[in-house]
Each structure stands twice: as structure tokens, then as C-alpha cells.
């Protein structure tokens, strides 16, 4: 049984003409990314607690939760939550409140948590608090800034690394492709209404890292073939390189996908959103390696890459 | 290639064995306390507990310093018999200013101000503006003071938390003016929050001659025992820093709770002098700008001990005694972020994490065997070693593992087989190109190495950035992935290669199973 692989994604000698669909691929990608940018502004991302500040209390009531009763209890305590909703089982309640305004809003935010906790445990004795978070406005804006910095610096590092290891055309095509990937993922976040928080920033960065990895492998093969087939037209050479690495591209996507899948299914409330976005990112990253990164290279480097190699 | 040196073989085997040994403390009880028993710590999201981010109030630190600087300045002017008028303290610009009595005394007054001792180097500047002499606190110096105050506060916070009996708390500085407190197992941090939110600055001050109106040199403060405002002199006669001990007791006369305190000799002397000189007058016991009680001085108190009765119950009396023993904070701390995870959610998260990790691992293992046969199996062995090494390194550093950290481990395992896939695809290509098994094996590994290093280097850089700029859960995620990339390079480039080579040397196959 161990002597042979049981299956392949594509036959080794299969030569698919990917470059024929390059315009289509670029247009579809551009349209999706533009739509995502529009979605980013309208309706926009649903910011998580980390970035918007405020409080969230998650509690489990002894019996099925009586939302009306809880709302009344909070109202009597002078607390006006922005949302009282169910999550998970019918006994689970999530109460969220946006950061209050005013001069002593930091202190107010922290006080609210205790108020909510005592109000609901008075209304439903035996209620268990699963989670109680309060993030002040100053902290949330710092977290947001740090998250964006991490994202920006990562992109810059990737650009520099590819520039150093490959040539300019490669670096620019890679970063353009990554930005297209990133915008689509943000569009996905806007549509699915997953909360955008620190863990999501980590997901975006992991997608970036994974997608780069994929592009580096294809580019590596293109670079090798540029040296090997000195007269082959670039278009043909790109197709050859993509085909040669196709089983690897699909195989790796498959394993990362398989690893992230259980997280999306059983990861619990913290990780489900994270893993679902990862799964989306893996699909986008893999297809962009084939349909976007290489065509961009053809567009930018048709003259330069080929000429230089022929010249020397 | 064939002659994979014995040294290298031993090295690889040694590292794997070491990895297994380092993992063990996570699963076994330490047989002897003298052994270095390094374990992974579970993060608060997995074991349940509370996280508090405290912010030091810089403004109040500045205000206090301005006030003491003003006292010093006045005293110095008085000592040198220099006159002044219109002495102004401005908190907004962090400055003091006054008008010298005459132009002739201006230079002398300026000199006197320059001679004031700074608490930290370059603490304030002295200048002249429109005939006034201005002292301005410097922001840099105040930041240095804040760092010092944070260091002091950490000590005091630790003493206060230890006194509550919390197990395994972690207290650390963050940035210039913040403190992170992590309290595993504490699912209701309200008491600790109120303990930390109290500055606990105890002062003994005389009441103003007419306690119902504020006069110069006195301030109206809330008297909590009778809920009225009283005018209390600003001059502090005895300070809580002179306390040596405090305890909660039941008051013999009233039967209610009270707090007793003991002063050191300097405090006792000062206390004796004040009480002797002011028999029959009232003095106030002030805690954080609130009057706890303001009794009449009946007899001079010379022994340096006393009792505060201020409508306490058992809890508030013992908390105040605790705060007084632990000492006052140099400036107020306020909570700016808190996160509490109940124990049941933590347990559910561990469960979810472990199930996901195992399922993911199984799926990847099955896929590799189906996709690559024997070499897929070797990749799986390497994968398993990878997991062990990751756990080993995390244990070695006694790192914290959170739920996002577990997700990071899982993703690392998914990405790790990429290296094996690259190698196997290369070997396959070399075979198709007509090379013999040995050459194909060799060329496959050699050629894939460059690609593997390139593709991992970019991921490494991205996650180091995430670690540097990330906070909390994100940092842990980045940490496990960064460690995972290093272990991946080892297990794929050395371990799976070794397995393939040993198999080839033993089986001498005519063709490779790719």
C-alpha cells in the first residue's frame, strides 16, 4: 500500500493553458476586490470589542434564558445595553455595550461590567458568568493602531524579502496579488459579519504569510525555468512553471485546509470566525497564485525578464 | 547522501529524544522538587481567570509633585526671608509661578528656586516671564518618575494581591505607565479591583479653625462618618508612610469593627507633638482625600499607636488594614481593560482546542499517506516529531499557551508538510526525468531545500512582525508559529531526509515509491 501514492490532483504530464484565461482572471479578481473595498466602507466591518471598546458579558442562565426579564433587570439598574442576544445554547446570553462617552468614560466602562454582572445574577440566581470583558477607549484605539502596524510592517517585510531574493517584477506582482487577496478577505469579513478583532488581524497575517509562501514556490520555479529554457516565450514558460508546481500547490493548500477545518467546526466561539476566514483565505491565496500572480508577472515582465536573460 | 554521517544521525536522534524528555513534565508529576520541572503554562483563556490592565494616573503624580514643590519653594523663600505674592499653581501647564516682593529680590528668588533639589535629574526648569518667576515640570522627567512609580506600584500591587490569597498571580509592567495583572482562577475580580483602585494614602491633619468654611491653606473634604463637608488643613502632620503595622479588631467600647495602627518612632514623635499641642481640638484621619473620622484630641497620644473607628464592617476593616500594611500607591491606578474568563468556558476551550488539534493532525496524516505512500508516512513521523519539539521548546521557555496559540500549532502542522510535499514532488520529477533512485532522492532533497528556506523565511518574517507589534492573544499565536517554523525546518530537512536515507540503505529499492 505504501509503495505508490493512491491519487494525484492532476496527471503529471497535464499541461493546462492557464495564461489563456489571464485577462478573465485579472478582471474577476479586480471586480471582487473593488466590490470588497466598497463593502469595507458600506456596510463596513463589524468591529470587535478589542477595537471599538466597551463591554461584553457572556453568561449562562440555569434554565432557558428569559431575555425580557434580563432586559428589564438591566433597565432597572440604569444600564442600557446595545444588544442582548443568544449565542450557542438557549441558556447562553451575550450582553454587549458600546464604550460610553464623556470625560470619565474609562472608569464608566469598567464600572458597567460589575453592574451588568450583579443585575443579571439578581434577576436569574445561579447564573454563571462565562466571560466578562471591558476594554477602555484609549486601549482599543492603541490595539487598533498596533494591529494595523503589524499588518503594514509584514507587507513591507515580504516586499523587501522578495525584492532581495528575486527581481523587482516578482516583488511588485507578489505584493499587488497579496493586496488583492487581502481586500477580498476583508470583503468576506464585511459580508459574513464576523467581528474584526485582534484574532482576525492574526488570521489576515497568516493568510498573508501562507499566500506569500505559495507565490514564492511558483516564482522559484519560474526563476529556475527562466535559466533553464533560455528561448522559451515567457507566456509558455509561466504556464509550464504553474503546471509543474500544480500538484504541490494543491497538495499544500489541501493540508492547510484540512488543518484549519476542525478549528472552524469545533474551535468554539473564539476560533470559529478565525478559522472560517482562514479557510476563505486559503482558497483565495491558492487561486491567486495561479490566476493572478503569474499573469501579473507576464504583464509587467514580458519584455524585461525575457530580454535580460536572452542577453546574457 | 548514502553515508549520512553517524554523528549527524546521533545528533538528530539526540534532539528528538531531548524533545520527548522536555515534553514529559507536562504530563507527569515532579518526582522530586529539586528537578528542574519546566512546564507550559495554560493561558487565562484556557484555565479561567482575570486579566486587568492598570493605568497609572500621570496627572495626579504631576499634581502631587507640583504641590510638594510649591511647599518647598515657599519654605525656601521664607528661610531666605524673600517675599513673594500671587503664588500660582497651574496643573494644566504643570508649572508654578509667583511675583517677587521687589525687583531687587528677583535675582535672589531665582537663585533660591534653582537651588531646590530635583527628585530626578532635570526635573524642572526655572525662568522669568513678565517679571514673574516660573518653575515648569519637564515631561521627560515626569515620565521617568512614572516609570519609577510603576516599579514601586508593582511591589505594592503584589503585596496587596498576595494578601488576598490569589494563587499564582502575575504582575508585570507594560509600557511607561501601565501594569498588567493576571489572576488565574479568579473569576470575580471585583474585590481585587477595588483593592487596587484604592491609593490608600493615609494622612493625619488638623481641622481648620472654622471647619465649616474653606480658608486659605485648607480644603473642604467629605467626612464619610457623618456625610458632611469639613475644612481640613492642607498641612500633613503625620503620613501613612510612617506606619509599621495595621490590623482589624473589634472595638471594645462600641462592639463594632475598627482598624488599629502602629507608627514608627519618627511618626510617633510627630504624632505626640501634634496631639500634645492641640488637646481639645479636632484632627482628621484622611484616606485618599476622604475623611474617615475626625475625633477630638482628648489626651496626647505618645505611644505611637491608635485606632480608627469609622463605621467599618469585618470586610472593610480587614481590607483597610491590608491596604495600610501593603503601603500606599505613589499615584492612583485605574483599570483600563479587564477580561474575565469563567472556569467552565476555559475547560470548554481546552476541550475544543484539543479536539481540533487531534482531528486536524489525523486529517493531515491520512492525506499524506494517501498522497505520497511511504514518503508520506515519513512526513507524518516528521510531523509528529515536529509537534513534540514545539511542545518541548514551549516547555523549555515555560511559555504560556492560549487558544490562539493552539490554533498556531495546528496551522504550523498544516504548513509543515508543505516542505515534505516540495521534496516529494521534486523527487518525483527527477524520477520522471529518468534519474536512478539514489540520484533522484539526492537531487530531490537538495533542490527543494532552497525553495523551502525561501518560503519559510517570508512566513517567519511576517510572524516576527506580528509578535513584535501584536498584543495578548496575537502574540501567543505568532510565538507558536515562529517556533513552529524553526522546528519544521529541522524535522523536514534533517529528520525526514534521514528516514528516507536509512530506508534506502536498508531496502535498496529499484525504484522509488513516488
TrEMBL record, chain A:
Subunit structure: Forms a complex with SecD. Part of the essential Sec protein translocation apparatus which comprises SecA, SecYEG and auxiliary proteins SecDF-YajC and YidC.
InterPro entries: SecD/SecF_arch_bac, SecD/SecF_bac, SecD/SecF_CS, SecD_SecF_C, SecD_SecF_C_bact, SecF_bac
Gene for this chain: secF
GO BP, one annotated term: intracellular protein transmembrane transport
Pfam families for the chain: Sec_GG, SecD_SecF_C
Cellular component, GO annotation: plasma membrane
UniProt xrefs under NCBIfam families: 2A0604s01, transloc_SecF
Function as written in the Swiss-Prot or TrEMBL entry: Part of the Sec protein translocase complex. Interacts with the SecYEG preprotein conducting channel. SecDF uses the proton motive force (PMF) to complete protein translocation after the ATP-dependent function of SecA.
Protein name: Protein-export membrane protein SecF
Residues in Protein export membrane protein SecD/SecF C-terminal domain copies: 118-302
Keywords: Cell membrane, Membrane, Protein transport, Translocation, Transmembrane, Transmembrane helix, Transport
Family indicated by similarity: Belongs to the SecD/SecF family. SecF subfamily.
Transmembrane segments: 21-41, 147-164, 171-192, 198-218, 250-268, 274-299
SUPFAM superfamilies per the UniProt record, alphabetical: Multidrug efflux transporter AcrB transmembrane domain
GO molecular function: protein-transporting ATPase activity
Localization: Cell membrane
Membrane topology summary: Multi-pass membrane protein
UniProtKB/TrEMBL annotation, chain B:
Keywords per UniProt: Cell membrane, Membrane, Protein transport, Translocation, Transmembrane, Transmembrane helix, Transport
Keyword Cytoplasm: no
Keyword GTP-binding found: no
InterPro entries in alphabetical order: Acrflvin-R (IPR001036), SecD (IPR005791), SecD/SecF_arch_bac (IPR022813), SecD_1st (IPR048631), SecD_SecF_C (IPR048634), SecD_SecF_C_bact (IPR055344), SecDF_P1_head (IPR054384)
One Gene Ontology cellular component annotation held by this UniProt entry: plasma membrane
UniProt membrane topology term: Multi-pass membrane protein
Transmembrane segments: 348-370, 377-397, 403-423, 452-471, 477-500
Domain of life: Bacteria
Domain Protein export membrane protein SecD/SecF C-terminal: 335-503
Domain Protein translocase subunit SecDF P1: 150-207
Entry's Gene Ontology BP terms: intracellular protein transmembrane transport; protein targeting; protein transport by the Sec complex
Function: Part of the Sec protein translocase complex. Interacts with the SecYEG preprotein conducting channel. SecDF uses the proton motive force (PMF) to complete protein translocation after the ATP-dependent function of SecA.
Similarity annotation: Belongs to the SecD/SecF family. SecD subfamily.
Subunit record text: Forms a complex with SecF. Part of the essential Sec protein translocation apparatus which comprises SecA, SecYEG and auxiliary proteins SecDF-YajC and YidC.
Protein name: Protein translocase subunit SecD
Taxonomic lineage from the root: Bacteria, Pseudomonadati, Pseudomonadota, Alphaproteobacteria, Acetobacterales
Amino acid at each position: 500500500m505504501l509503495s505508490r501514492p493512491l491519487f494525484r490532483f492532476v496527471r503529471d504530464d497535464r499541461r493546462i493553458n492557464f495564461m489563456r484565461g489571464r485577462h478573465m482572471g485579472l478582471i474577476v479578481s479586480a471586480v471582487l476586490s473593488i466590490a470588497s473595498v466598497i463593502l469595507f466602507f458600506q456596510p463596513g466591518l463589524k468591529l470587535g470589542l478589542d477595537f471599538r471598546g466597551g463591554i461584553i458579558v457572556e453568561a449562562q442562565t440555569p434554565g432557558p434564558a428569559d431575555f425580557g426579564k434580563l432586559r428589564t433587570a438591566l433597565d432597572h439598574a440604569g444600564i442600557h445595553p446595545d444588544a442582548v442576544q443568544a449565542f450557542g445554547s438557549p441558556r447562553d446570553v451575550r450582553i454587549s455595550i458600546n464604550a460610553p462617552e464623556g470625560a470619565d468614560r474609562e472608569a464608566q466602562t469598567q464600572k458597567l461590567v460589575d453592574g451588568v454582572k450583579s443585575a443579571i445574577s439578581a434577576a436569574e440566581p445561579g447564573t454563571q458568568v462565562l466571560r466578562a470583558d471591558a476594554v477602555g477607549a484609549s486601549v482599543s484605539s492603541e490595539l487598533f493602531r498596533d494591529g494595523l502596524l503589524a499588518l503594514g510592517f509584514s507587507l513591507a517585510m515580504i516586499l523587501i524579502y522578495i525584492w532581495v531574493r528575486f527581481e523587482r517584477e516578482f516583488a511588485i506582482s507578489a505584493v499587488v496579488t497579496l493586496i488583492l487577496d487581502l481586500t477580498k478577505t476583508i470583503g468576506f469579513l464585511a459580508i459574513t459579519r464576523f467581528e474584526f478583532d485582534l484574532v482576525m488581524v492574526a488570521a489576515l497575517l497568516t493568510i498573508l504569510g501562507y499566500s506569500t509562501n505559495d507565490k514564492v514556490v511558483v516564482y522559484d520555479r519560474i526563476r529556475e525555468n527562466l535559466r533553464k529554457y533560455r528561448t522559451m516565450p515567457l507566456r509558455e514558460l509561466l504556464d509550464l512553471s504553474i503546471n509543474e508546481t500544480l500538484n504541490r500547490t494543491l497538495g499544500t493548500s489541501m493540508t492547510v485546509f484540512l488543518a484549519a477545518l476542525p478549528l472552524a467546526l469545533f474551535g468554539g466561539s473564539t476560533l470559529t470566525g478565525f478559522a472560517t476566514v482562514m479557510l476563505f483565505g486559503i482558497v483565495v491565496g491558492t487561486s491567486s497564485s495561479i490566476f493572478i500572480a503569474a499573469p501579473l508577472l507576464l504583464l509587467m515582465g514580458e519584455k524585461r525578464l525575457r530580454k535580460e536573460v536572452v542577453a546574457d | 547522501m548514502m553515508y549520512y554521517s553517524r554523528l549527524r544521525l546521533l545528533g538528530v536522534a539526540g534532539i528528538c529524544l531531548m524533545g520527548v524528555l522536555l515534553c514529559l513534565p507536562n504530563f507527569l508529576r515532579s518526582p522530586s522538587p529539586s528537578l528542574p520541572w519546566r512546564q507550559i503554562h495554560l493561558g487565562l483563556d484556557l484555565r479561567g481567570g482575570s486579566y486587568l490592565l492598570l493605568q497609572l494616573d500621570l496627572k495626579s503624580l504631576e499634581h502631587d509633585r507640583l504641590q510638594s514643590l510649591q511647599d518647598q519653594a515657599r519654605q525656601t523663600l521664607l528661610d531666605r526671608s524673600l517675599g513673594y505674592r500671587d503664588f500660582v499653581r497651574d496643573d494644566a501647564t504643570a508649572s508654578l509661578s509667583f511675583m517677587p516682593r521687589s525687583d531687587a529680590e528677583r535675582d535672589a528668588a531665582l537663585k533660591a528656586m534653582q537651588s531646590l533639589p530635583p527628585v530626578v535629574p532635570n526635573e524642572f526648569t526655572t525662568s522669568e516671564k513678565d517679571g514673574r518667576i516660573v518653575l515648569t515640570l519637564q515631561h521627560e522627567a515626569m515620565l521617568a518618575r512614572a516609570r519609577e512609580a510603576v516599579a514601586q506600584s508593582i511591589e505594592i500591587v503584589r503585596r496587596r494581591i498576595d494578601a488576598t490569597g490569589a494563587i499564582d498571580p502575575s504582575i508585570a509592567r507594560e509600557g511607561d505607565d501601565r501594569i498588567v495583572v493576571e489572576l488565574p482562577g479568579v473569576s470575580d475580580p471585583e474585590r481585587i479591583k477595588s483593592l487596587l483602585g484604592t491609593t490608600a494614602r493615609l494622612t493625619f491633619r488638623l481641622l481648620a479653625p472654622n471647619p465649616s468654611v474653606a480658608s486659605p491653606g485648607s480644603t473642604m473634604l467629605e467626612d464619610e462618618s457623618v456625610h458632611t463637608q469639613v475644612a481640613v488643613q492642607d498641612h500633613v502632620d503625620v503620613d501613612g508612610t510612617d506606619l509599621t503595622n495595621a490590623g482589624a479588631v473589634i472595638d471594645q467600647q462600641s462592639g463594632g469593627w475598627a482598624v488599629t495602627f502602629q507608627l514608627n518612632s519618627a511618626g510617633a514623635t510627630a504624632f505626640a507633638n501634634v496631639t500634645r499641642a492641640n488637646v481639645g481640638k479636632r484632627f482628621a484621619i484622611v484616606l485618599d482625600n476622604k475623611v474617615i473620622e475626625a475625633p477630638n484630641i482628648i489626651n496626647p497620644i505618645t505611644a505611637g499607636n491608635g485606632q480608627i473607628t469609622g463605621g467599618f464592617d469585618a470586610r472593610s476593616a480587614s481590607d483597610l488594614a491590608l491596604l495600610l500594611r501593603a503601603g500606599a500607591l505613589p499615584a492612583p491606578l485605574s483599570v483600563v481593560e479587564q477580561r474575565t474568563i469563567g472556569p467552565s468556558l476555559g475547560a470548554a476551550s481546552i476541550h475544543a482546542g484539543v479536539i481540533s488539534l487531534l482531528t486536524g493532525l489525523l486529517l493531515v496524516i491520512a492525506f499524506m499517506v494517501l498522497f505520497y505512500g511511504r514518503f508520506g508516512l515519513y512526513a507524518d513521523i516528521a510531523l509528529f516529531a515536529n509537534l513534540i519539539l514545539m511542545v518541548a521548546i514551549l516547555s523549555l521557555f515555560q511559555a504560556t499557551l492560549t487558544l490562539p496559540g493552539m490554533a498556531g500549532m495546528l496551522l504550523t502542522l498544516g504548513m509543515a508538510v508543505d516542505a515534505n510535499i516540495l521534496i516529494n514532488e521534486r523527487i518525483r520529477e527527477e524520477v520522471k526525468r529518468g534519474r536512478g533512485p539514489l540520484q533522484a532522492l539526492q537531487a530531490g532533497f537538495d533542490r527543494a531545500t532552497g525553495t523551502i528556506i525561501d518560503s519559510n523565511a517570508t512566513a517567519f518574517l511576517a510572524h516576527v512582525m506580528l509578535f513584535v507589534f501584536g498584543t495578548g492573544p496575537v502574540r501567543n499565536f505568532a510565538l507558536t508559529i515562529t517556533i513552529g517554523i524553526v522546528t519544521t525546518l529541522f524535522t523536514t530537512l534533517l529528520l525526514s531526509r534521514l528516514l528516507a536515507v536509512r530506508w534506502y540503505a536498508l531496502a535498496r529499492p529499484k525504484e522509488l515509491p513516488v
